[in-house]
Design brief:
Oligomer: single chain
CATH topology: Glutaredoxin
Shape: globular
Order of helices and strands: HHHEEEHHHEHEHEEH
Number of strands: 7
Distance between the termini: 31 Å
Helix content: 40-55%
CATH architecture: 3-Layer(aba) Sandwich
CATH superfamily: Glutaredoxin
Structural class: alpha/beta
Largest sheet: 5 strands, mixed
Radius of gyration: 16 Å
CATH class: Alpha Beta
Strand content: 15-25%
Length: 193
């Protein structure tokens, strides 16, 4: 599993120390808890807090969404960063879904994590380059952390909610295995009526 952490300017020595600590902690967590971690496993099958379910997300084209309003559909919230190569590599796992899937009740919403590097122009170029055809909005680290119910705001992270509004899957990072599991989770939820 690979994921990007928030980019901050640091001296080389402090960046190296942070990277070494992150790699060590990530490897330890992966060995102990598996790919999605214990926090994610505890949330699977549960409804989000009511305040979070009613939180309105606004896409760049002005459309507004909330998990509560989208109940009855399979909802995928995909958190990414325009500067993150893993986010870029992860996009084909979601852009492969098409109009037929949307007609069957799939709603994907991309949420770019706001930072100093995410300008409207850069986000628009990212959407164009990645051929993203679903709504995309901006989200702060605080709101991102609320959705994933974790202080881990590495990207990409993807949440899959079933038609009943319950969290059915939570994926952190990007790899061929993660992308295959994400695709299978979405298709599995679409099959449920």
């Amino acid at each position: 599993m690979t994921a990007c952490r928030q980019h901050r300017s640091r001296s080389f020595a402090s960046r190296l120390a942070v990277k070494t600590a992150i790699i060590g902690l990530s490897l330890s967590a992966w060995l102990i808890f598996g790919v999605t971690g214990s926090e994610a496993k505890g949330k699977i099958g549960k409804l989000p807090k009511e305040s979070l379910a009613r939180h309105q997300v606004t896409s760049l084209d002005g459309r507004r969404f909330s998990l509560a309003e989208l109940r009855g559909q399979v909802v995928v919230l995909d958190f990414f960063a325009v500067w993150c190569g893993h986010s870029r590599d992860h996009m084909p796992a979601l852009t492969r879904f098409n109009e037929d899937d949307r007609e069957r009740g799939l709603q994907i919403i991309g949420l770019a994590v706001q930072d100093q590097q995410t300008t409207a122009e850069r986000l628009a170029q990212f959407i164009k380059d990645q051929k993203i055809g679903y709504p995309v909005g901006l989200v702060s680290d605080r709101i991102f952390a609320d959705y994933v119910q974790s202080r881990d705001v590495s990207v990409p992270q993807t949440l899959v909610f079933g038609r009943d509004g319950r969290l059915m899957a939570h994926f952190v990072g990007q790899s061929a295995e993660t992308d295959a599991a994400l695709t299978a989770a979405i298709k599995g939820e679409l099959e449920k009526k």
